[in-house]
Amino acid sequence: MKAYILKRFLLLFLTLWGITLCSFVMLQLAPGSPLEMKIQRGKDGSLGEKSAVSEEVIQRLRVQYHLDKPILVRYGLWLKDIARLDFGTSFADHRPVISKIAERVPISLIFGISGIIIALLLGIPLGLLSGAHPNTWLDRSVAFGSIAFYALPSYVLGILLLTFLGGGEFLNLFPIYGIQSDAYSSLSLVGKILDRLHHFVLPCICYSLGGLAFIAQQQRASILDALNQDYIRTARAKGLPEWLVFMKHAFRNSLIPTVTIVGAMLPGILGASVIIEVLFSIPGLGLLSFESLLQRDYPTIMANFTIGSLLSLAGIFLSDLLYVIVDPRISFD
Amino acid sequence: MKNEFYALLILVILLPLTACNKSEKASAINESDYSGPPVKNDWMISWLSANPDTLNPVLNTDGYATQIFPLVFDTLLFWDAMTGKPTGRLAESWKISDSGLEYDFFIRKNAKFHDGSPVTAEDVKFSFDLIKDPKVDAAHIQNYFQSLKKVEVIGPYQVRFYLSESYFRHLIMLGLYEVLPKHIYAKGDFNTLPQNRAPVGSGPYILEKWDQGRSIELKRNPDYWGLSVPEWKDSYNFERIIFRIIMEESVAAMALKKGEIDILSPNPNQYVKDFVGPEFESKYYRLKYSTPDGNGFRFIGWNLQRKMFQSKKVRQALAMLLPREEINKKMYKELMTLSVGPLPQGSPKLDPSIKPIPYDQEAALKLLKEEGWTDSDGDGLLDKAGQPFKFEILFTAQSDEVERIALIYREALRRAGIQMDLKALEWTVFLKDITEGNFDTHMMAWGSSLDSDPYQIWHSSQSVKGGSNRIHYKNERVDEILTIARTTLDETKRNKLYQEFSRILAEEAPYVFVFERPNLLVASKRFRGVLPIGVLGPDGDKFFTPPGLELYGKLEAQ
Fold first, then answer.
1. What is the band of A51 on the pLDDT scale with cuts at 50, 70, 90?
2. How far apart are CA A298 and CA A85, in angstroms?
3. How many structural domains does chain B have?
4. ipTM field
5. Which residues of A are less than 8 Å from B399 in CB distance?
6. Which of A235, B273, B393, B450 falls between 20 and 30 A from B136, CA-CA?
7. Does the domain spanning A99-326 belong to CATH 1.10.3720.10?
């Protein structure tokens, strides 16, 4: 087991290195440069009077930002900094990339984790429910609902929620932007929690519905699969009550595929949904990476890439380990 | 289809619930004028569509903070919104030498920064010297201030600027540049100062809080030195000015309708779609106003290095084939004004006899025929010397507004036998392509500024890489006019030159001037002082709430 973990750990770093090299090179080969963009971009899709730049200025900036060196040399420099956990400073506002990311991580984390938890808490029972009554009216409505919500782009869902539940022209139940109200700092602790929760409702629905539908369908398929196994027949034959058969034998085994999915969902915790963040004006990590891509802010993009890939790899690693815990038949020795 | 179905489904479910929402409190707005003193404790809530990179006016390039700078910082001068004339702000008076190469500004002795220290000539010199400092990340204004040779402190309250040439916009450039306190901003690396996120200026408002990505809150500077100037006594009437950052336009529109935003400058689409109806207009001012230099214009620019666009008649024909009236009706409910040149109709710099080019396929085909473009092989496409008439238009994928115009244009061209392919690009890629001359034609918009100078876009010297004459327009008379106009400080004479320039442009049609971008404003009717609109638009500094209508101050008093 230990040897396996060690091997996986080394592989993880090798893979990470490969990913960063590829993304670094691809990023720099993409058309457009952060310098021209910085100088000439207009706020509202128009160019302004001060937008002209001379070639010398651009050339000087290129040297200043080390963009005059060959790609691989730049990658080497970047790698050297990363080894010391230095993600550099942002081209956009000269702040250390790490602090830009750090101020956004908690926000994304809260939404991402609560999204997954809600999806699990509702998705697994829903899947079990329809799996326990296959091909009934109940099963079909759950299937219809999940497929519909899975197919519905979160943007459309978000706009619908905003318009009908928060817009004021229909219902005015929820705030439509941000994560806290203006008077937040003057509220009591309970008031603060309630205020945050109030703001979380709509975005959380958006965050969790896609995953919820996915988990419900996955759980339904795996419980049906488990129920058809021989050991279930054995369990029933020895006279166990149905609920015990279901919960003790079928349920536990059916969780294995779901656990893998959760592993795959982990990287999504941090900023998987730019669209939801834009829609609800939540300054999260997804938004940061989107903005920095548009600005060709290389240090920020690379930091995001690296952290994102690290999380993905860790997620896969973690779900592999979880296998052992939920399924004693699997072992890495 | 599916989405529509769900929208409908939710609508059906929710419709009965909405009935109870109608009994909202009647709005307390009456239109009668109020002439007493303004209430000073209300707040004004405004909208920002993105989080600015920085609140340092020298470093900011994204333009999102431009509404905030004049509130936190002072400039030497300002242009009075009512009269449109330059007026002293930090400068009590100013003097321009006969040669037009030296500008002296005399700074008010009572002007103070937020920390109480006086504003002196040293601070002014420091602020302008930043532009030339190679360590300061200000490339975006270095080119703009190229003619500024030297700044000299003559006395503690007198500063002199030396310029390398005489230019009519120098007063604007020097006068509208923010003055930073030297003793604060000269400490450490300018690019990474903590003050870039917590600015210190001398203006009427102080930054209270910048909640990253959420809001920027300004609080009135109770010791603002400017309040001792009689003309500004009734200005700055809001206790707080809050800028809410909402990235999604439609959500900002909802927030305004819910009363959570008081004022915003909508885009034309929002203005005609979201902000309409008698109920809306009973609560909000809905203003479209004109200014001498307008708010910029949308255009289609032909790459004049491509052979097919080098003929004037072809360009005129292509302009006639853009059905602007139809677009205006379909997309904007006739809100837009058809553009006739780089400046809005009615501008003194524009020859008033120039009329918009109407859509006219017949006349266009006649012109094209004169130039040898006919459908000789019967394939439905015009051709000349075996070459079919086909080209590509580049635009940014940012808004579907541009794409819709391009689609309508494509259809109109197709009817005339011309093939135009659309290519939507991301901003960065688009900029790269048009900068390198890698396009047939492109559609975008120019912003405008106070007393704008067309030199940068139309002078042939600007058709180098990085310059703004990206279509490579070259006309000797235009070059001559633009060069003379720059050094002509007499406005009447200059306008005359620009009128001739506008006639040449109208004749040569190097751009299809599509629409003038209108100045639009939506603001709560609880405010007074919004009307009448001045020469440069409403004067935001003078907005106020009459007693009894304030929304926020009361909360605080409790």
1. low
2. 16
3. 3
4. 0.82
5. 45
6. B450
7. yes
